[in-house]
Design a protein that fits this description.
The chain is α/β, with parallel strands linked by helices. The chain is 51% helix and 12% strand. The protein is globular and about 50 Å long. It starts with a strand and ends with a helix.
Length: 199
């Protein structure tokens, strides 16, 4: 699909710069917001209505937040090809709603390293759900918008204003490519850190 309507999005970000303004504009386009933890609190603090990921999954966050978005109700909604009738039928069968946008940036592992945290504490700053959602959305750019950084907020909103709340395939593909590069850099940084530190 060329122009993708953005109706439902997950926002879960470490860098909250410009977040409230971006989310407020999204709500103005009728986008349903879903979020986790600190991001959800920040959005609620800005007076926005936000559904928790736990409401979507029907399961609480567990293990101190290690497991919250890793669930078929999230990833089924992100990975469904909207042009594939079988995928849509599967969603209907299991009561899963599509997700049109993933706005995620990752735990700041570089900050943990720069602060000289010990290995066990630093490992807690390795993001799992974030890269998984980013990769899923980037893979499925034909059906989903992935937003890996606040620097893209204004461009996304400009497109939505021009296209009646829709995002072009050109922009979705561009952001997908950037997302894979960012996740690759993140993984490389972690691999180097682990290789350089004793267990």
């Amino acid at each position: 699909m060329d122009l993708l309507p953005i109706k439902r999005g997950i926002l879960s970000v470490t860098d909250k710069s410009g977040l409230a303004e971006f989310a407020s504009e999204l709500v103005g386009f009728g986008v349903e917001l879903i979020s986790t933890g600190g991001t959800r609190k920040a959005l609620q603090g800005a007076g926005l209505s936000v559904k928790s990921v736990s409401e979507v999954t029907g399961f609480p966050e567990i293990m101190g937040g290690r497991v919250k978005t890793l669930h078929p109700n999230v990833h089924g909604g992100v990975l469904a090809d909207k042009d594939n009738p079988e995928h849509i039928s599967t969603l209907d069968e299991h009561g899963i709603k599509t997700i049109d946008m993933i706005c995620v940036n990752l735990y700041n592992f570089a900050k943990a390293v720069s602060e000289g945290q010990n290995l066990r504490d630093a490992v807690e700053q390795i993001d799992i759900g974030g890269p998984t959602m980013l990769r899923a959305a980037a893979k499925n750019f034909h059906s989903v918008l992935v937003v890996p950084s606040p620097v893209h907020y204004s461009r996304i909103l400009d497109e939505m204003k021009q296209n009646g709340g829709k995002i072009s395939l050109v922009l979705r593909k561009e952001l997908a490519a950037e997302t894979f590069a960012l996740v690759s850099e993140y993984d490389s940084m972690i691999a180097k850190y682990l290789a350089d530190h004793d267990a």
